[in-house]
Structure formats: C-alpha cells, structure tokens
Amino acid sequence: MSKYVFKTTRNGEIIPALVLPDGNIQPLHSMVDPVKEAERLVATIPQNTDFLIFLGLGGGFAPLAALKSGTGKVMVIDFDRDGVNELLSSKDYTPLLNNKRFTLLVNPSEKEIQSFILQNYNPALYGGTSTIPLRTRIEADTLLFKTAAQSIQQAISLVSSDYSAQAHFGKQWFSNIIRNIAYGDPNTHAAITDSIIDEAAVVAAGPSLDMQITQLAECKERDVFIICSDTAAGTLLHHGIKPDTIVSIDCQHISYYHFLNCNSHGFLNFLQNIPLILDIASPPLLASFSVNHTFFSSGHPLARYINYALKPMPQLDTSGGNVTYTCISFAEYLGAKRITLFGADFAYVKSRTYAKGTYIYPYFEKRQNRLNTLEAQLSAFLYRSPFLSIQGDEEFRETAQLRFYREKLEQKTGISIVPGSGNPAVISLKNFSRKSGSTAIKKRFNSGADFLKQYRKDIISAEQGSEVFTTLLPYAAYLKHRNPNIGTKELIELTKSSCSSYISAFV
Questions:
Q1: For 187-200, what is each residue's pLDDT tens digit?
Q2: How much is the pTM?
Q3: Domains of the chain with bracketed CATH
Q4: Number of neighbours of residue 181 by Cβ within 10 angstroms
C-alpha cells in the first residue's frame, strides 16, 4: 500500500500527503506556498546555528531552504524505506541530494545516528545545532522519531563535552605535540612497549593507597608488573617501591610537579632509569626526566595523523579523562589478563585528596605563610568544586568530575569502586587484542623536522574536510572559544595561519 499521495499546491509545487490508517489524507506542507513556509521556518533558527537536523524528509522544502540560506551542514532522518522511495520517485530531489552539505539517513540505528553526528558535527565550525521536526510526519511514527531524537541529544552531549576540552586545551595540545616532534627522535621506541605480561598492578594516587602500600610491596616481590600514574610516583619511590613504568597524560604544566616531587625525595636520578609512557601532547620537558621514554597516540587528530604519516606509536585510550583509566588501557596493551588496582578512590576520603608523598603537600608547603597556611591551602583545594550529595556515608565526598571518572572506569572494567577501601580492586580481562600503532605508513620522514616542514606546507593548502585540516580542529575550537563572533571562513584562515606560524619557529 502507498504511504503517500501527492498533491499540487496553488503555486504549482508537488507536496506529499500521508495516507493515515483511517484513510484520511494529511498534507505534510502548506497547500498554498510550501516554499515560503519553509523559508519562514528556517528564518526562525537562531544565528550561528550551522548544523541542522530535520526529522522527516517530506517534500524537502525546509532542508533545501536551509542550504540556500548558507547553513553549513543539513541532515535529514526518516524511516520506512518504501515510503522514502515513494517520495524520491514523486519529484526532483537532486538539488538536495547533489549538495555536499546534505545527508539523508534512512532507517538509521541509534548507533548510526550518533556515529554520524560525532564524526561530522564540530561546534567550532558549525556553532550551534538545532533539530527541526516535520510534525505531521513524526506523529505517524512517534516511537521511532522519539528514539532518534534521544540518540541525537546523547551524541550532541558527547560532542559538547569534548568541545569544552578542546576549547580549553586545543592550543596547548598543538604546541606540545609540535615541540615533542621537533625536539625528539621520531624513530625511538621504548622497549617496555614491546613487553607482554600476564598480570599488572595499576597504581593511582587516591588516599586509599596509604592503606594498600603493604599489598603493593607484596606484588613487587612477586614480580607483578607495576604501572604507576605520574601522580603516585613520588609515593611509591618514598616507600622504596620502583614501578616498572610511569604513565602521564596531562598536557598542563602541573605535570612537572609530579616528577619534581620525586626530586624532593631525592629520587630524580633514580627516575632516569624508569620507562615513561607519555601522551604525545604532554609537556616536552617531561621526556627529559627519563632516558627511556616513549610517546603514545591518544584521540587527538594530530596524534593519529603522526601515527599514520610519521611513525607508529602505541594507541592508548584516554577517553576516561584521567591517568588511571589510561594506565589500565596500557595494561591491556601489554596483554595483562589480571589487573590489581591500587589507590583508585575517585573521591575525597576523610577530607584528603591524595595519598601521602604526592606532589600536593610539598607544593603547598613551599607557598604557605601566616596568612595562607598549609591547612588553608589544602582546604581551598578540597572545596574548589561543589560536592555531590551522598546518602549514608560521610567518610568520602565526590564531585561531578570525580563521579564521571569513576563511572567511566567502572564501565570499562565491569567492577565497582569503593572509595577508601583497604583492599585493592581486581580486574579480570578477557578477549585480549593488542591495539598497537598502525604499520600502514603513508610516508616516512628522516626526522621530525622534515615532517614539520611538509606538515606546515600541507596546513597552508588544507581544504575543509581533508585529513590535514582535521588535525587543526582542536586548535580551531580554542580560537572560536576566544573569538565567539568570528565567522567560519575567518576562523579557518586564522587557525591555519596561527598553526603554520607556530611551526615556522622549528623548521
């Protein structure tokens, strides 16, 4: 049975009308002038909203009006493949389908909707986003379109969260990566990343680590491979426990203090022999703390491009937002089937933020005076973010960010985190598959300088949507955040000129 019949409006446009179950006919658009109706609808969309999602194709009038108005990206979601085929056979949709800024998704799954938005929606380039329902159409398949709308909202929330990080750290990520390539040998690779292990101990720096040190020392005696977060390194060395490797992911200069804290314990020279696993976007000085260091590739598009075009690197998961999560990813990379997790609280236990021996105590001690005591600084640090309400337990407190970290780790590992526990958590891993760096190298360079020379040239000529252009998007988010009224074309040119100028200092 046909889902649509087609009618001609007063001004000669062909519009689809739904055939309802009771036999009634319901036009999807104005029977007078659907083009003007669509133009008026698009005119109500807020400025700087350049990513539009239409629910229901209908006659395509509103999506076409959006494209004509200059909207950057237009997406249409519809269901019932036979019904869509009827629409496409009824009139000429080529002005829509031939436009590179237009996408039609028919019968998409929730995952397909989210995947498309995550891959195509960039707030720096498109500003805001808006979802516009073709109401008569969605009322015929309410559940399908309601599910689609929920998938859209979930995807946009993920993009917004990622964009916030890009807007804050985009410039720092880019500058750190460029300097690490300029100063380092792109062909070195720490031998530790070639290891295969069965059991690992992952050490975080939460207050519970103080209670678990004895058990960690027993792991060391059993030759369990110890992967330590940079924050916890000083605590372990203070207790005479040498980790097998230290992992660091933070691009901020605060990372220096974790390693300088080791110096305050007299362990800086000792640190030189411990392998460091560093995000390629880490501050460049961190690599100097150990003669045995290697960079890994995280989710930054420039890091992925370097992995493909310059050198293969281990690829570790940093999506949990904290170094403990990445330490677990590294244990997976090395093949661990069992992980014992120490010091992972993701909460402030008995008003304490970190284990003893971490950087925060000497950091505040050096800055204390009679008007700003150590206790006052620690208290200000503790209360810098509002606590979430916790029922029935006053022994620990958590913030929204700490809860996010905990929930992400629990989703990844399938375990429950108990803050302040004297017993470390145990993670069992199955179906191990090493996620190594890509070996499909597009082009090999003799040095980081050679790579940067070509990369700078490629930036200048990069077109929107190209592989090289994608590497600039986090930097563009940083610039957009500081210049909210800048247009897309101006933003692209400013991003390209800023990035190429920065690289010029190193080639």
A1: 455 567 778 899 99
A2: 0.83
A3: 34-160 (3.40.50), 194-428 (no CATH)
A4: 26
